[in-house]
């Protein structure tokens, strides 16, 4: 690489919400050349049009990852628990183990190709619940620390967009109902996943010291979600209350991932540092800023 050439950053999951944000943020900034990785290059033609190099790679195939990482200075890596949850027909433990293997494959490929900065999207370890969609990533954190790969971590939060994508808001006649399965006074650490690239860019421009960056906007209760949406839309938005007694009952295996996730918030185990996040990204969106412009919420609620 000559002094005038840009360092290449390979972005895993480039057609997903986190990876797509990283690609677009890096391209807009212009410091790095961007290599967008995807299993199906036909789905990433919009990223190619923006200026990214589009390359086929699959987390199942270490050789494909090595090829995709070859010549890259940096990597942004993320794994997708939910696609594997579907593959394993709702078996959380199998999906967790599979996700962990994907993460190990990414680390191994980066180490083999001499990647100089590996930025890994992760989630917290929350004893005693051991949430499946967290723990695969947590295991990769430990694996990464055991390898000779310079790295940074991006600790992500609950997506604001989960309200739509997971069906936590619905229409009920002329009204709308927020149905987050958690007592309405419990706060959920959240952010706009479409801003992930801001934290990744900051990490890539900093030394890879193993630092954890906090991708976080704000913490809201179910009632605060409803009040915000009512204020924006002018519609009546109410909350389905979950009593502590119901919340504390044992969930079935097929429901445990959701209850465990919510318990990690309710018990104060999944927290983010507001001051630290704002130092890293002073313009991180609040839920209200996100909701005012989110196409999914606007289409559902008609505002």
Automatic annotation (TrEMBL):
Signal peptide annotation: none
GO cellular component: nucleus
Cross-referenced SUPFAM superfamilies: NAD(P)-binding Rossmann-fold domains
Keyword Phosphoprotein attached: no
Record keywords, A-Z: NADP, Oxidoreductase
Keyword Transit peptide included in the entry's annotation: no
Family designation: Belongs to the NmrA-type oxidoreductase family.
Protein name: NmrA-like domain-containing protein
One term of GO molecular function: oxidoreductase activity
Residues of the NmrA-like domain: 5-249
PANTHER family: NITROGEN METABOLITE REPRESSION PROTEIN NMRA FAMILY MEMBER, NMRA-LIKE DOMAIN-CONTAINING PROTEIN
